[in-house]
Automatic annotation (TrEMBL):
It comes from the Bacteria. Residues 19-49 are annotated as: Disordered. It comes from Streptomyces griseochromogenes. Residues 84-474 form the Solute-binding protein family domain. This is Peptide/nickel transport system substrate-binding protein. The lineage of its organism: Bacteria, Bacillati, Actinomycetota, Actinomycetes, Kitasatosporales. Pfam families: SBP_bac_5 (PF00496). InterPro entries: Peptide/Ni-bd, SBP_5, SBP_5_dom.
């Protein structure tokens, strides 16, 4: 996932949990959840490009997964149980063969589109192929890299022969042939590119206006490119072949482009339709959270979640003085994580991090603290290392950050770091850039600064999509968006990435990812700072709150309204 791709995170520590008493059976009211009513979704970001080919989602997304079913999906349960991949359209999570280079799926019987026609394996193959069309770009890039012969494929509009790497021997069977072993293919199969698209109903770039539903809801209105979406029940969806989505409300009304403060005010007041409203992308800020915490009724309507996401300092070791490991280690020792957490909104909204991998079992989290700074920084140890590096009289460096008020890579965090490093004799000059300029600068090998703030979130809950893009040398992009900020190209790291990718035992793979995280950390190419915590209000008439470690936010496929 691109580090700046916040839409994936929000549509994205310890185990996730909802309000007190929350469990997978439901919360938010005393009576059992029932069908009926309208759920309103109040968001700041529009649900643009509502086409399964163009969406970049984790686990199928939140609003998208109401319309688009995929071969597999995320488990719709609270906390760590929700970080597992489960079957969706398929009967299982996939059957690997030939060393995990071939994956075979069988579709469930009785699957239908909104018009009652059957869903076939050919529709899934076509849906994937159209995601390669340049005019429908935007989805996850893995298929182009993983499928045999897919690197230069331009989609079915230009190449009607399709992709030989995807075979459909019959209407219920689909087989994928990969260039290399990929034990985590079942996670990839949760992305919306794996949603079926009937070829005869494909309208190209206009498909987003009325995509053909395979899920419990169909699109009846899409205004201003996702600014206002209205979803109503798909009469041909059956709970008998969909164990994951509850589909309680009759209608889902998604309204976007709203100011975050307005969203929280409306959810807090819960007047009229807003009583049955939620948000999937708007957090409570520090000031709002303080107000909510002091109100018993409001506090009971806050869902708390954690997503696999890390905010960190990045170093470019090609730029002096960061080419010296002792300088990088000194900064790691000098960091005052307490002040950084406070700058990020306080301990309710951020948890200190000493590992790059998030504190969740599914990622392979292995506790370590190689450069222990304590809660407030170890200035003495930092000075000692700087002296060893030849900087006995102190050091002056420039820290690049975004001017966007996001409590992640913003001025507040940069200032906290500046203050902490001053105690260690390091003078930090701050270079604040407008967000687009900041992203362009840090993601280009040619312009990447030596010392800057960054963040990363996972495409699925595993160490693979967390460590490989940042530390696999073969993923360094010289003429495009590069995320391997330390420009690390270590054969032992690359080889271990390949070895873990061969594993289809995901628990065994997780342990290996955790060990690799610790090994890479020895090079001090990044300094983990904190993992965000998501605090989201929901309306007083909303029931059945489920928040998984996969998304960290309320799952609207489970919600019921009074």
């Amino acid at each position: 996932m691109a580090a700046a791709s916040v839409s994936l995170v929000v549509a994205a520590g310890a185990a996730a949990c909802g309000p007190k008493g929350n469990d997978a059976k439901g919360s938010g009211g005393d009576s059992a959840p029932h069908k009926g009513g309208t759920l309103t979704v109040l968001n700041s970001e529009p649900q643009t490009d509502f086409d399964p080919a163009r969406l970049y989602t984790s686990g199928g997304g939140n609003v998208p997964s109401l319309v688009f079913r995929t071969l597999t999906t995320r488990n719709r349960e609270n906390g760590a149980a929700g970080a597992k991949v489960v079957p969706d359209l398929a009967t299982d999570t996939g059957r690997p063969s030939k060393g995990a280079t071939v994956w075979t799926y069988t579709l469930k019987k009785g699957l239908k589109y909104e018009d009652g026609t059957p869903i076939t394996s050919a529709d899934i193959k076509y849906g994937i192929e159209r995601s390669f069309a340049p005019e429908l770009s935007g989805g996850a890039p893995y298929l182009r890299d993983w499928l045999v012969g897919a690197a230069d494929y331009q989609g079915p509009y230009k190449d009607k022969k399709g992709l030989p790497a995807i075979e459909t021997p019959d209407e219920r069977t689909i087989v994928f042939h990969l260039d290399k072993p990929e034990g985590e293919f079942p996670f990839l199969a949760t992305q919306t590119q794996f949603a079926p698209v009937p070829k005869g109903k494909d309208t190209g770039t206009r498909y987003e206006e009325h995509p053909v539903s395979s899920g419990p809801y169909k699109v009846v209105k899409n205004e201003n490119d996702g600014e206002h979406l209205v979803l109503e029940r798909n009469p041909n969806w059956s709970a008998a072949v969909d164990a994951e989505r509850k589909a309680y409300p009759d209608t889902i009304d998604v309204r976007s482009g709203l100011d975050s403060s307005v969203i929280n005010q409306r959810l807090s007041a819960s007047q009229g339709a807003d009583a049955a409203a939620v948000t999937t992308d708007t957090n409570l800020g520090p000031a709002e959270l303080a107000k909510v915490t002091g109100d018993k009724e409001l506090a009971a309507r806050v869902g708390t979640g954690h997503f696999g996401y890390t905010n960190y300092i990045a170093f470019n070791p090609k730029v002096k003085p960061f080419d010296n490991p002792k300088v990088r280690q000194a900064i790691a020792y000098a960091i005052d994580r307490s002040s950084v957490v406070n700058a990020a909104g306080g301990s309710a909204l951020a948890e200190p991090a000493t590992t790059f991998l998030p504190d969740q079992k599914s990622f392979g989290y292995t506790p370590y603290d190689l450069f222990p700074a304590g809660g407030t920084g170890n200035a003495a140890k930092a000075r000692e290392l700087l002296a060893q590096a030849g900087d006995k009289s102190g050091l002056t460096v420039t820290l690049t950050h975004s001017n966007d008020k996001n409590f992640e890579t913003s001025p507040e965090i940069a200032t906290a770091i500046q203050d902490a490093l001053k105690k260690a004799g390091i003078t930090v000059k701050l270079q604040g850039l407008e967000d687009n300029d900041y992203r362009d600068k840090i993601h280009s090998v040619k312009t990447e600064p030596g010392f800057f703030l960054a963040h990363w979130g996972a495409d699925w809950p595993s160490g693979g999509p967390f460590l490989a893009p940042i530390f696999d040398g073969r993923q360094i992009v010289k003429d495009g968006a590069n995320f391997n900020t330390g420009l690390l190209d270590d054969k032992s790291v690359n080889d271990e990435v390949d070895a873990i990718n061969k594993l289809t035992d995901l628990d065994a793979a997780a342990k290996r990812w955790g060990a690799l995280d610790k090994k890479i950390a020895e090079q001090a190419l990044v300094v983990p700072l904190f993992h965000p915590v998501y605090k989201r209000l929901y309306g007083s008439d909303v029931k059945n709150i489920v928040i998984s470690d996969w998304t960290g936010v309320l799952d609207i496929s489970q919600v019921a309204v009074k």
